[in-house]
Design a protein that fits this description.
Layout: H1 6-24, H2 31-49, H3 56-76, H4 81-105, H5 115-139, H6 143-162, H7 172-198, H8 203-226
Length: 230
């Protein structure tokens, strides 16, 4: 059975590409309409397709996470560090909700196959060190919040990999959760590097495309999980 209201996903991608166009043409003031439409469209798509009575706590986690992402998107449109820090905090809590969701699917311990975590842990540790060595010397008093954020999003990636240990939801990890979490890491790393190192507005297009696709994958994975289509 196919998901309902596929047109919502069509409009999501239209809004995302339109937002990228506004970045390219430097029409930042109009992005409140394009960027601001992304999470409501995904939320409507999720609610439409996750309307069963099962997994109610998990569904509430997704709804809360997407609302936080929507608020974070809007705050990141504001100029100045205040908007950036508030947006960062909102996305940090969003990732915590995703972590809890993955924990509900598969607890972190005990591990029947340690490779599900050891290899991703090594990979994300190397990635984090490379990013932090580049960004931290330039971040000033934002260094500590950025380190905390990277730690949380890295844990989210590890918990997505940990879903491989679930008998029922194992297939969702490589299809949706792991690539989605990896794209979040990439998107936020590009955002940090652009803010403190490159400072090229066009890089915002790469940030939005990776972020948008990450959320797209996550929502599709959550829908398949709550509907039992693993």
């Amino acid at each position: 059975m196919k998901n309902k209201n596929q047109y919502l996903i069509f409009f999501f991608w239209v809004a995302l590409l339109a937002d990228c166009y506004l970045i390219y043409t430097q029409q930042e003031s109009n992005r409140i309409f394009t960027k601001g439409a992304l999470m409501p469209l995904l939320l409507a798509y999720f609610l439409t397709n996750a309307s069963t009575r099962h997994h109610v706590p998990s569904k509430l986690l997704v709804v809360a996470a997407l609302l936080l992402a929507w608020a974070g998107d809007l705050f990141l449109l504001l100029s100045g560090r205040g908007g950036f820090i508030t947006g960062l905090l909102l996305f940090l809590v969003m990732h915590l909700f995703y972590i809890i969701y993955f924990w509900r699917i598969q607890k972190l311990f005990p591990q029947k196959n340690p490779g599900n975590l050891v290899i991703p842990l090594a990979a994300v540790a190397i990635f984090d060190v490379l990013i932090m060595r580049t960004v931290l010397p330039l971040a000033g008093n934002l260094g500590t919040p950025l380190m905390a954020y990277m730690a949380v999003i890295s844990l989210m990636f590890l918990m997505a990999c940990n879903v491989l240990g679930s008998k029922k939801a194992r297939s969702l990890a490589p299809q949706f959760f792991i690539p989605g979490a990896a794209l979040f890491l990439l998107s936020d790393s590009i955002l940090g590097l652009n803010m403190f190192l490159w400072e090229d507005f066009l890089i915002g297009i790469a940030v939005m495309l990776t972020y948008g696709y990450a959320q797209h994958l996550m929502v599709h994975g959550f829908i398949r999980h709550v509907k039992g289509r693993t």
